[in-house]
Amino acid sequence: MKEKVRTGLLLTLFLIACLVVEFFSPHVFDFIILFFSLIATMEFGKLQLKSGNPTFKYVPEISCFLVFIATFVGVLCNLSAVVILLIVFGLEILLYLSILLGSIFFIKKDIEQDEFRRVTNMNTTQFAIFKSNNTFATMVYPAALIFFVYLINHIQSLGLDNLTSNTEGVPMGLFGLILLFMICCLTDTFAMLFGKWIKGKKLIPSISPNKTISGALFGLLGGVVGALITYFIFSLIFVEAFSVAYFWQFIIVGFVGSLVAEAGDIFESFLKRRADVKDASDFFKSHGGVLDRLDSVVFNAPVIFASLLFIFG
User: What residues of the chain score a pLDDT lower than 70?
Assistant: First the structure.
């Protein structure tokens, strides 16, 4: 328990340090996102393998770099959010089609000799499609979803004129990231603390035996609290810019964000249960792997990005 608390404090300090880096240099923060995106992708690839869902080596990691490079170059070239999004997802589809067609027509011998194919008794074409689809899933989760963390980080450089004019002088990238992490962290903290205190009926025991209904309900409260704390702190500092935003909007954002965060947590629990492992890895020692820490963040990033556009755009 002491080690878990100590590791948790170190992780919190590290997160604060990363946000300080973001304030001074968003582009350096991009590289931090890329690093953890790669680790999380490799962890998911291992979960896939242990679940009997093999992937093509290195393709998901290449996908991480493509998402990073497309976003990085797009921001430097002042491309709009829509154009960057189309480029990123176009590259993802192109990469998927490349491995699908390549595995069907050009590497039949490797597919035929794959030991997983022999176990499944699929023919080479069926197994090529199966393995390509598994690889695509590992490209989408978490790398393609983490793409929205990049967008939040550079939200004022994406050609969103209304948002830019409404939030002039406000570090909206920092605000969005703090909002994202506050909702996810307080959802998890409230769910854990109140779940252990109140206990009661299990939420989904077949997937996650430790989660309770009481913990899930108080987790929703935690998300709302996290959103409101972030809103009130920034509204006190940037009064004029935040005059277009209202506290009830952040109650909704916190509630919806908390629901999505819990869904992300449950989804990752399902992946671990399917792979029959406790944690995605031991990267953070007693706190598990990168995917264990980012499961709710990955799901929530698109929600927070869309919320910022709706409220300030």
Answer: 1-8, 108, 161, 164, 313
Which residue's structure tokens are 């989904």?
A: 204
Give the domain ranges of the chain.
2-312
What are the start-end ranges of the H helices in the chain?
2-24, 26-50, 59-76, 81-105, 108-113, 115-120, 124-138, 145-153, 161-166, 172-198, 213-237, 247-275, 290-312
Backbone angles phi, psi at 56, to 5 degrees: -75, 130
- Of 56, 81, 260, the residue nearest 139 (C-alpha): 56
Which residues have C-beta within 8 Å of that of residue 66, sequence separation ≥ 6? 88, 91, 92, 95
pLDDT at residue 6, rounded to an integer: 67
12 phi, psi to nearest 5 deg = -65, -45
Structure tokens at 289: 């792997």
| pLDDT the model gives residue 2 | 60
Looking at the whole model, is its pTM more than 0.70? Answer: yes
| Nearest-angstrom CA–CA distance, 251 and 226 | 9
